[in-house]
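Q: I have two molecules that I believe assemble together. Could you output C-alpha cells for the complex as a whole instead of separate predictions?
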Amino acid sequence: MLKISNLHVHFDLDGTIVKALCGVTLGVNLKETLVVAGESGSGKTVTALAVTRLLPAAARVTSGEIYFNGKNLLLLEEDALRKVRGKEIAYIFQEPGSFLNPVYMVGDQIMESFLLHQGLPRVEAFAETLRLLELVKIKDSRRVFFNYPHQLSGGMNQRVGIAMSLACRPKLLIADEPTTALDVTTETQILDLLCELKSSFGFSLLFITHNLSIARRIADRICVMYKGQVVEEADAERIFCSPQHFHTKELIHAYQTIGTQ
Amino acid sequence: MLTYIARRLAGSIPIILGITMISFAIIHLVPGKPTSAESALNPKVSLQVRERIEKLYGLDKPIHVQYLEWTRRLLKLDFGRSFSDGRPVIEKITERLPVTVGINVLSMFFIFIVAIPLGVKSARSSGSWFDTSATFFVFLFFAAPTFWVALLLMQLFCITLGWLPISGITSLDFEYFTFSQKVIDIVRHLALPVFVSCITGLAAVSRYMRTSMREALQQPYIYTARAKGLPERTVLYKHAFRNAILPIITILGLSIPGLIGGSVIFESIFALPGIGRLFYEAVMMRDYPLIMAEVVLGALLTMAGNLIADIGYAYVDPRIRYAKKVS
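A: Yes, here they are, computed for all two components at once.
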C-alpha cells in the first residue's frame, strides 16, 4: 500500500549539507502494523514526515520514490496532496501537548477535519466530533470538546490527537513515538486503544519508536533504522529470535537490560 | 471579566494621582512663571502688578496647596481656565482633538492593515527577495526623518504636481461646499499627513509580526495543521496568526496614548491645528492648567491602553484567560 524506495533526504543547514536519509526502502501492507525502530537521529521521523512532504523548508528530497496506492506522492501537486493529508494518511505526533494548537478548543481542532475533508455542516461535524471523542474513550466528551489543550493531561491530549487523526477514517496512520512523552500506565492505555481502533477502523499503522518492548507488543513487522538507512527488516518474531544487524542487537540488549533491572 | 476590569480601574486611581503629582511638581520646577511671559520683558509692568496677577491665578500660594486645589477641582471634572486666554481648558482641548485623533486613528488603521500582511508574508518567505526588500524599505522609512520626508512629499505632490493642498485641514471656501465636496476636501488635506505618519510606523509592527510569525510557524502544532491537509492560508492565518498576534496587541495598547500625542514638528509642517502644537504652546507659556489637563488625559489613555491590551491578551490566548480566573 505504501512503498518508499531508495529515499534520500538532505538538510541544508546554512550551507552545511546533512544527509538525514541515505536510501531508505520500506513498505507498509494493507492493515499491517509496521514498527520503525532505531535510535534518536536515525531518520525515523524524517521518513515519516517525508511521506506527505511535511518536511521543514531546509530539507530536500534528493532522490527516491514514495508510492501510496499507486500515486507517487513526491510528484503530486500541492492541491491533490492536501487531499491525501489527513484524509488518507494521518499522523499522531510525539508531544501531544505541543502538537495541539494552544489557542483553540480541542473540539474545534478535531472538527476542522470534518469541515475540511467531508464538508459536513457544523451541527453534524459537532456531533461526529463528540462521537469520535467517545470512541477514543473520553467519557465526558462534551466538556472535553470545549477544553483547551493546557487544561488536559498528556494522556487526554494524546487521545484527542488520535481522535483528530482518525476523523476522516484514513487508510494509513503514521504514529511518531506517540507514547514517548507519557508515563507507563498511560502508555499502555494508549497502545491498547490504538490496537483496538486499528481493528475496528481497519487502517494500516506505521509506528515509530525507539522502544523495542512496544515494538514487540504491537508489530507485525519491524524495520530497524540506523544512520539514515534501513539496516534490517523482518517479521517481529524473527527480529527478536535472530537479529542480524549489530544495531538491532544493541536495541534488543538495551530493552532486555531495562527489563531485568 | 467585569470584576477584573473594575479592579483594574480602581487600581489605576493611585497611579494617576502619582503621575499628576510628579508632573505638577516638575512644571513648577521649570524656570519661568506664567506671569513672566507677559510681564518680564515689559518694564512698564511693576512688581505690584506682577504680584496681583500671581494672586489672581493663585500662584502665590505654596505648591502643595496649589496642587490640592487643582485636585479638588479635578474631582468635579473642572480643569480650570487657560492662563493665556481665559477660555476653559476642556474647550481648548476638545476643539483640537478631532484633528489629532482623526489623523492618528487613520494612520494606525493603515499601519496595521499594511504591516500585518507584510510581516506575515515576510515570515513565510524569510530570506527571499520579497522579505529582503520589505526589510530594506520599512527600515528606510523608519530611519528617514519625518520632517524631511514630509517636505519632499509636499514639494512633489503640492508644488511640482499640484495634486494636493499644501497645508491646513480645509480649504478657504470650505463653508460653501456641499457635503461630498467637504469630505473630498478633508481627504485631500489629510492624505499627506496620514501617509507620512504611516510610513514611519510601518517598521515596528511589520518587524514584530514577522518575528513572532516565524516563531509560531516553527511550532509543532503547525505540523499538525499541515498534516490535517489544511490549505496554507488557513495554516497561516488561523493556526499561526492567533499565536503570533500577542506582541501586536502590546503595540496597539501602547499606541493608544499616542492617539492624542500628535507631533509638534509634524503638525507645524502641515499647519494642522492639533493637540501637539497646543501642548507645545502651553508649555512655552507655562499655562499650568492646560499642561496638567493634557497630562491627565495622557495618563488616562495610557491606563486605558494597558487595560485594552490585557483584555486583548485574554481574548486571544485562553492560557492567560484561565490563569486569571484562578488567581
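A: One point stands out. Chain A has a mean pLDDT of 91.
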